[in-house]
Amino acid sequence: MGDYSKAFEFHDKALKIREKTLPSNHPDLATSYNNIGGVYDEMGDYSKALEFYNKTLKIREKALPPNHPSLATSYGNIGGVYDEMGDYSKALEFYDKALKIKEKTLPPNHPSFATLYSNIGLLHDTMGDYSKALSLLEKTLAIRQKSLPPTHPDIKQTIDNIDYVKKK
Question: Does residue 29 lie in a domain region?
Fold first, then answer.
């Protein structure tokens, strides 16, 4: 709904409860940090988003096995912030870490790949590598067409992205 102050207020309340009741490396604390990072990310406060996403990552790296899907989420979130900040090499580095975990833990057409392929594809588009962008966006479309109803807006958005890249 875009009410960031209200979102932050409730995520902060949850964090304070978790900080009082859980050990400092508990995965639920990471969830709170991730949620707060997401609010900052949506607000465009990328340095604060990175701060909280990195807190999340630090806990998850200690508390979870190395190929846990939550680590892939953290890497993807951090990659997304770097992408928004225009630091494309850092974004690709973190997107790649997320991709490696997903490739080890999920079937190749899992819907979770679609978002990551789309993000990486659009990043390559921004960087001017249109053939790489097109390849990744076509993978995105194939997965979404198998996993979503034909009228889902993500399918249309992916087709529009492909057409946009093709025109370039």
Answer: yes
